[in-house]
Structures are given as structure tokens and as C-alpha cells.
Specification:
Blueprint (H helix, E strand, L loop, with lengths): L1 H16 L8 E4 L6 E8 L2 E7 L3 E7 L4 E10 L8 H10 L7 E12 L2 E10 L2 E14 L2 E11 L9 E2 L2 E2 L3 E11 L5
Antiparallel strand pairs: 1-4, 2-3, 2-12, 4-5, 5-6, 6-7, 7-8, 8-9, 9-12, 10-11
Length: 188
């Protein structure tokens, strides 16, 4: 019986040693006042841009390897501000903000190539989840990492009814751009 117990403990230790987790990784929230996300929309007669400075970014950071393992982002759709209250109110109606108040992103894979992050993940907007891929630029300054990027989205793919102005619908393409700053632990 003691021999079997010893074999099971050794087998368990071997299996655990191959599991893909890193005890050194830490969750690091973005510096709120230095982070934002902006959407840009185009219509034949005008362009619209609205920014949220209330987005919450979080990274899983490995200080041993000095790398980002994963990222999540959550934004309340009512926090986007275009500078035009009427337009923002109409946008909240179109995206059904009471029914779908949050936009979320969770990475499923990040490949680091120099200062470029190749990010794949699931974006959920207007109750629809889609896999997206985009590149981001990463700049390291002492114990701070700044990440910037942009990517296009199809409004139709997320089942949002595109509004019309003078019988012309808003373009389907929405351009998203983001900036996030993180204060990370020093390399071990």
C-alpha cells in the first residue's frame, strides 16, 4: 500500500509539473486616467468619434519573462462620449444599452514579436460574441508598459441596426482604437 501511495504521489508531481500555469504571473489593472478606447463611424454626410475613458483593461503579466500572457477589457457602452449628447443618446438606443450595457474582450492567444502583440480573442458586443484578431504596439518604459492598437469591426456582424440619415445608412465598418498603460512589477 505504501509503495502504491508513493507511485501516485510521484505521478501526480510529474503531471502537475507539465501543466501550463505560471505562479510568477500577476494580474495588473490599467492605469485608468491614462487608458481609453475610441470608436469612429463614417456616414456619407459626416464622421463620428466617441471615446470612453472608463474602460477597464487587465493583463496577466509574467515579470520573469517580462511579457503579457493575456488581456481582458470591459467597457460600459454608456461611457462613450462624442461631445454631442443627442448623438450619444441615439447611439445608446441603437445598441440597446439597457439590454446590452457592456462590451467585453478576452484574449485567447497572444504572440509577442518584438514590440508587436498579435492578439486573438473573443469580443462580445450587443449580445453577440465573435473571435477577432488584431495587432498592438507595445512600448516599455521602466516599469510601465503602454499598448496602442486599432481594428475594424462590422456593425452588421454584431446585429446592430445601422441608423440612417437622409435615407442613407451609416457605413458598416466601425474603427476601434485603444490605448492602455500598465504599471508592471520589476523583472525578477
Amino acid at each position: 500500500m505504501k509503495g502504491l501511495k508513493k507511485i501516485l504521489i510521484i505521478a501526480f508531481a510529474i503531471v502537475v509539473s507539465f501543466l501550463p500555469f505560471n505562479l510568477d504571473a500577476v494580474n495588473v489593472p490599467a492605469i485608468t486616467k491614462e487608458s481609453s478606447i475610441t470608436y469612429k463611424l463614417h456616414h456619407k454626410f459626416h464622421n463620428v468619434a466617441a471615446t470612453s475613458k472608463a474602460i477597464k483593461y487587465m493583463i496577466d503579466y509574467d515579470p520573469v519573462k517580462s511579457q503579457i500572457n493575456s488581456v481582458t477589457a470591459v467597457a460600459d457602452v454608456t461611457t462613450f462620449d462624442s461631445g454631442n449628447g443627442n448623438l450619444d443618446s441615439h447611439a445608446m438606443e441603437v445598441v440597446e444599452a439597457l439590454k446590452y450595457p457592456k462590451v467585453t474582450f478576452k484574449s485567447t492567444n497572444i504572440i509577442v514579436s518584438g514590440n508587436t502583440l498579435n492578439i486573438t480573442g473573443i469580443l462580445t458586443f450587443h449580445g453577440v460574441s465573435k473571435e477577432i484578431f488584431f495587432k498592438a504596439n507595445m512600448i516599455r518604459k521602466d516599469n510601465t508598459i503602454e499598448v496602442d492598437g486599432n481594428f475594424p469591426l462590422s456593425i452588421d456582424a454584431f446585429k446592430v441596426e445601422r441608423p440612417s440619415l437622409m435615407f442613407v445608412k451609416l457605413d458598416d465598418k466601425m474603427e476601434m482604437s485603444f490605448h492602455a498603460s500598465f504599471e508592471v512589477p520589476a523583472k525578477n
